[in-house]
């Protein structure tokens, strides 16, 4: 049994003991909260992951003190941080991660991506994605499942044409000034971005444009969930305060971005540079 599973079991045990102390069965609490009758027993046995919202509901159902709720939430955050480390997520390669992201995207009505040093993943060409996955596999010493990961990433892009979704892709000059792929690959990638104009909202923050605050990392907002990509881990939060902060930050970043004809002019300029290099 892994350390993570042991910690989830320990958290489940603590929730079970709290129910016993309140003289409430798991079935009774589940019914009180409007859940499936077996949900609490599955949480106790770590067969079902408990969410932050679940903990809040359980605390209210058991009338737990605020301090106890915060203690439980802190432990869940610590477990999630360990689970989110790339060395754990990438044990099976990048393909399973792409599949999990695809599920999140299919369930979301709005997707807003800010990519600091790469072209946003939903806009990758297959060749550009290969260079990205190869570099990341080398960095994390993860299984080199490049072709499978590329296929999954390309499959994710079907949602770009789903008119029920609102998709925004924002980047900076970095992917073009510090490219991860050769000139020929970058030229095809620029063509792809030009083709997406009018299909999704796309913007570029040019060099020298004043930023609302120091940009430290890439992130994606899917409905109420924020996923922050760091070198060693991914931080995911559904806290309303966090979501409001990132949406406010995104709005400020978009205010500094070039879109439409201005974005096309930048892409065309970089395409000319890559042709000269090639």
From TrEMBL:
Entry-linked PROSITE patterns: HTH_CROC1
Q: Which residues form the HTH cro/C1-type domain?
A: 15-69
Concerning Pfam families, the annotation shows: DUF5753, HTH_31
Give the matching InterPro entries. Answer: Cro/C1-type_HTH (IPR001387), DUF5753 (IPR043917), Lambda_DNA-bd_dom_sf (IPR010982)
Q: What is the designated name of this protein?
A: Transcriptional regulator with XRE-family HTH domain
Q: Which organism is it from?
A: Amycolatopsis thermophila
